[in-house]
Write a structure and sequence with these properties.
By secondary structure, this protein is of the alpha+beta class. The protein is built from 3 helices and 3 strands, in the order E-H-E-E-H-H. Strand 2 (26-39) and strand 3 form a beta hairpin. The longest helix is centred in the first third of the chain and has 13 residues, at 8-20. It is globular, with a radius of gyration of 15 Å.
């Protein structure tokens, strides 16, 4: 998943919330993003930070909820992209590190 934030502190807070709640296995913080976008009739040009979030597809609603609850933007970017392929060990780690479902149940 991709989520932008206004600065590294907010990105770190969001990432920590997601990892501690086990809705994400990992959140990478990438500084130095420049975003050009239309908002409320204006063209904006802002510095942002990008979060790459690794999670399960079925946890998308939980991630969206946590991001919306803790994000300062009115309309935060929250985009899911599929993992087309990856090392089996890494994909298994994502599965083992995150909750089984959005309601908090684990596989065990």
């Amino acid at each position: 998943m991709l989520v932008t934030a206004p600065d590294a502190a907010i990105a770190a807070t969001l990432g920590r919330i997601l990892v501690e709640s086990r809705t994400a296995a990992c959140a990478n913080i990438v500084p130095g993003v420049r975003s050009l976008y239309a908002w409320q009739g204006e063209i904006c040009d802002d510095a942002e930070v990008l979060l790459f979030i690794k999670t399960r597809r079925n946890l998308f609603p939980a991630v969206v909820s946590l991001v919306r609850e803790n994000h300062p933007y009115v309309t935060p970017e929250i985009i899911a992209l599929p993992i087309v392929s990856g090392s089996q060990a890494y994909l298994e780690w994502i599965e083992a590190t995150t909750k089984e479902s959005a309601n908090g149940e684990d596989a065990s």
